[in-house]
Amino acid sequence: MSITPPPTISLDSRFARALPELALPWQAERFPAPDLLVLNDALAADLGLDAAWLRSPEGVRLLVGDRIPDGATPVAQAYAGHQFGHYSPRLGDGRALLLGEVVDTDGRPRDLHLKGSGRTPFSRGGDGLAVVGPMLREYIISEAMHALNIPTTRSLAVVATGHPVRRETLAPGAVLARVASSHLRVGSFQYARATGDIGVLRRLADHAIARHHPAAADAGLPCLALFEAVVATQASLVAQWMLVGFVHGVMNTDNMTISGETIDYGPCAFMEAFDPATVFSSIDHAGRYAYGHQPAMAEWNLARLAEALLPLLAEDEEQAIALAVEALGAFRRRYDDAWSAGMRAKLGLPADTAISPLVDDLLTLLQADHVDHTSFYRRLTLADTEPVRELFLDLPGIDAWLTRWRALAPDTELMRRVNPAYIPRNHLVEQALAAATDGDLEPLERLLDAVTNPYDERPDRERYTTPAPTDFGATYQTFCGT
């Protein structure tokens, strides 16, 4: 059933029109009693959507895909992907639908996408559903990432479906309404390449250029310029993850966007005690996507994108490979530049400061004493060094480091603008999700208030600056929620 919502709501189907081979028309499952749990009013306003109408029964049904504007064509998107290094030729939206594209108040097209909306032909035996906890996790962490100025998909709403879902036990079902610049992924290109139809691959590249990297259209080799642009955006993105201690947890090629936005917040978490080997995901037994491996894994994923694009780079395969290898070779330099610039800002140092020995020694100290990553940099902004020293066992080591750092005359005001006081600390996220699953949204609302204002330190938010108890952090695991 469809309705005609207010005239401010219009969903275009440009992706489905441009690439019908990657878009399967489908409908969301109908849910008995959808109930809005949380709505992102600020994001709704950015999209030109009426938040009051979205809270109405008709608006809530839009947010679960039950009722859509006339003319819209929801689709399940097709894509392939390497999952933990193993190639799957047909993944796709197994529990998701692209409702369509809206134009935001800045004139940019944005995808309105549902997660947990029911089975599709890509479900591969899954139920296509989602539960309240994981959908609220994505809401919390994606909005925290946005507040940290890290490119990310956004969360518009989470709606309880009134439909119980079986996981380890029965849990209340939910749908997440997600907003993104697009849902084009490395896996989209892998799927297009696997069709053997170069025309499909070329149309996908043209669509990606127009949507995300329009400057590439004017280059001598537009598809090579597209690849170079994706390399650059991903190098910057992963550097930003590393600077805040974010661990994605499932960096499969179907979870790497062409836009350079963070996508898929399943088993993600924020590192507390600094350790490059940090892993939270319950299924990452070998630590493939550990915190310290993330730059290398991004580079590996980009190599898979290069492989998919080869027929568009040059007619001669050896020449195409040479072009791709050269372009991919820029990743490490771009990543190092972005990370170094970010570390200079975190330490309040000028852009031309040589920081390698200083930073290398700092990271050694942080790891040796299991120092909380976020607390350290925030306390470093204080005039008194004692709160920093309290974090360390090796007092001579940190005292010597502080002396070297202070000799460089750091700008603590700059540091306060880039070092958050609040991140979604894992124990607080779990407490909020457990309460929300039981119907109490107050802990969620308080946590969101802190993490969406990460630099605005207030006395009444002190509990949000405290790391998890040691016994919690030592055993904490995250799960995909499927």
List keywords for this structure.
five-stranded antiparallel beta sheet, 482 residues, alpha+beta, globular, two-stranded parallel ribbon
- With strands numbered from the N-terminus, the spatial order across the biggest sheet is 3-10-11-9-8
Unreliable stretches (pLDDT < 50, length at least 5) are none
Tally of helical segments: 19
The proportion of residues forming helix, as a percent range, comes to 40-55%
Per DSSP, what share of the residues sits in E-state strands of 2 or more residues? 5-15%
Mean pLDDT: 95
What does this structure look like?
- It is globular and about 65 Å long.
- Among the domains are: 2-180, no CATH class; 186-341.
- It has 19 helices and 13 strands.
- It is an alpha+beta fold.
- The strands form 5 sheets. A 5-stranded antiparallel β-sheet has the order 3-10-11-9-8. A two-stranded parallel ribbon has the order 1-4. Strands 2-5 form a two-stranded antiparallel sheet.
- It has helices at residues 14-18, 41-46, 51-55, 57-63, 132-147, 186-194, 198-212, 222-244, 294-313, 317-328, 330-346, 356-368, 373-379, 386-389, 395-406, 412-418, 426-437, 442-451, 470-473; strands spanning 2-3, 23-25, 35-39, 68-69, 75-77, 81-83, 86-88, 96-103, 109-115, 154-166, 170-180, 246-247, 269-270.
